[in-house]
# Entry
Amino acid sequence: MSRICEVTGKAGLVGNMVSHSNRKKLMKQLPNLQKKRFYIPEEDRWVTLRVSAAGLRTINKVGIEAVVQELGI
# Structure
C-alpha cells in the first residue's frame, strides 16, 4: 500500500539533503498518515481511511458524508 492520503492525495517527496560540505544524500519526506475509522450514521456503517493530518482537518470542516460522497466510497 502506497503512502498516499485518500482525501487530499498528498504523497511523499524525494530530494537531496545537502550538508555544509555540499555532500548530497538522498532523502524522503513522507506525509503524516493516520489510519482512522469514521462512522456514517445515515448508512449505519464504518469507513476506514488512510488520511493525513490535513485530511483529518478537512473531514472535521466539511464532514465525513461530503468527503465520502466526493471520493465515491
Q: What stands out?
A: The mean pLDDT is 94. Residues 42 and 65 are 9 Å apart (CA to CA). The chain has two helices and four strands.
